[in-house]
Amino acid sequence: MTLEGKTLFITGASRGIGLAIALRAARDGANIAIAAKTSEPHPKLPGTIFTAAEDIEKAGGKALPLTVDVRDEDAVKAGIDETAEKFGGIDIVVNNASAIQLTPTPQTDMKRFDLMHQVNARGTFMVTKHALPWLEKSGNPHVLMLSPPLDMKEYWFAGHVAYSMAKYGMSMCVLGFAGEFRAKGIAVNALWPRTTIATAAVANIVGGEGMMRASRTPDIMADAAHAILTRPSREFTGNFCIDDTILAEEGVTDFEPYRVDPSVALQPDFFVPEDATPPAAVSLKPVG
Asked: Model confidence over 159-178: pLDDT tens digits?
């Protein structure tokens, strides 16, 4: 299966996992709307919607850079309308945009609390809501959230309640939308990494250079997303997927190329349930 000719609306696609998903789709010849805030270069973060568009075009896709803050309903609606007008519709929505701050309750400013909930939970809900009329017209419509399995355990919340609430809000959208849209043939699934992924968020917020070396590259999430988005939407919905498990189902047996530094043990990510055992081919230990 291929994404050739399909139109994807991806939030937060100017860098990181969102851009990696876009580039994987572009290699198939997909149309990609890059809906993100970064229209001007950021002093600490790589990439803008325009550099992402150039990379997508070079990879073989068609790109539409859109300055969209997912907290702004008018901007979201305008971006979705422009995407549908340019490419003739929307087949896939990837809710990737997210805000993170891993602070305990006393150190969590309410402005940051609001930001995480507005971007993660509200943004996911709103983008999906406004894309729905176009998804209903697609032959194989998908909505994919970059959010974790709903494993409601105390230790996933303690220490960063605000972030966990906001991130699980995205996953609750998966659970609800999957049931609500099943009769329409619209698939709604979640994808989450087993290990940390080498992105700017990991480098600057979560763990720095050491954790970057203990991470996998965004390519593993891009390949797993591609595997989900090419499945029949009426047959695969309501799933909370882990990246390497999905790829193992597709026949992948060698996961070492995804490691940033094979000599460093992989760092497990937040929110991966204890019973989500890795594929037999996966090693979380350093090579050698």
From this structure: 999 999 999 999 999 999 99
Any catalytic annotation for residue 155? no
Q: In the sheet where 92-95 sits, what is the strand order?
A: 62-67, 31-36, 7-11, 92-95, 142-145, 187-192, 240-242
H or E stretch including 145? strand 142-145
For the stretch 200-256, pLDDT in tens is 776 766 667 788 899 999 999 999 999 999 999 999 999 999 999 999 999 999 999
Q: pLDDT tens digit string along 134-160?
A: 999 999 999 999 999 999 999 999 999
Nearest to 76 by CA among 106, 179, 84: 84
Name the percent of the chain in helix, strand, coil, to the closest 5.
45, 15, 40
Bridge partner list, 259: 216
What angle do helix axes 123-135 and 161-181 make, rounded to 10 degrees? 20
Task: For 98, list phi and psi in degrees, rounded to 5.
Answer: -155, 150
Spot the catalytic one: 155, 163, 168, 258.
Answer: 163
- Tokens at 45, concatenated: 């973060």
The single-letter DSSP state of residue 94 is: E
**In angstroms, rounded to a whole number, what is the distance separating the alpha carbons of residues 4 and 202?**
32
Given a contact cutoff of 8 angstroms between Cβ atoms, the answer to whether 138 and 87 are in contact is no
DSSP 148-172: ------GGGTTT-HHHHHHHHHHHH
Residue 24 token pair? 């994987």
Which residue in 159, 65, 76, 179 sits closest to 119, CA to CA? 76
Question: Is the pTM of the predicted complex or chain greater than 0.85?
Answer: yes
Do residues 70 and 76 lie in contact, with contact meaning Cβ atoms separated by under 8 Å?
A: yes
C-alpha distances out from residue 7 to 31, 119, 132, 167, Å: 5, 23, 14, 26
